């Protein structure tokens, strides 16, 4: 093991080549690689389920009946966990959901100077070579609440997935929070 920049990097020498040059194997690039996938529903602090409605371009937390949950339209998420070679502020994850035989992934985009959450048709990649607008850092909500989580947007620190009341909807948004502030609108259970 060689220590560099306070990180440990494991290097395996493969062979000594011409002119005594070393050749290496299993070098990792600074990228995110899909590790495993969890299949869950996302609940807010009010026990409402996150439901994606791509036809209306909206994702909101709703009260869902058992029968609606069985049909699962837009509420059964795949949470794609990634492994990385660099230390991060939590477990890197991406979200996708199936709606009427189509796959949609969650991403964030800037619109009219404001960051918004969108669901676009397509699949999450197996590898992400650098920064990505689909990655969130999953951490426990608080140290004493290990069964609930918060998700920080990877490209803008301090921005978290949350809900906001908009009329009768509890719409999924990105919310800016001061460091270490506890905000119940960012609390989600899987």
Automatic annotation (TrEMBL):
Alphabetical GO biological process terms: cellular response to lipopolysaccharide; cytokine-mediated signaling pathway; immune response; inflammatory response; positive regulation of cytokine production
Subcellular location: Cytoplasm; Secreted
One cellular component (GO) term of this entry: extracellular space
Superkingdom to which the source organism belongs: Eukaryota
Pfam families given in the database record: IL1
GO MF term list: cytokine activity
Keywords for this protein: Cytokine, Cytoplasm, Secreted
Family matches, as Gene3D superfamilies: 2.80.10.50
Known partners and oligomeric status: Forms a ternary complex with ligand-binding receptor subunit IL18R1 and signaling receptor subunit IL18RAP at the plasma membrane. Mature IL18 first binds to IL18R1 forming a low affinity binary complex, which then interacts with IL18RAP to form a high affinity ternary complex that signals inside the cell. Interacts with cargo receptor TMED10; the interaction mediates the translocation from the cytoplasm into the ERGIC (endoplasmic reticulum-Golgi intermediate compartment) and thereby secretion.
UniProt record similarity statement: Belongs to the IL-1 family.
Protein name from the UniProt record: Interleukin-18
Gene: Il18
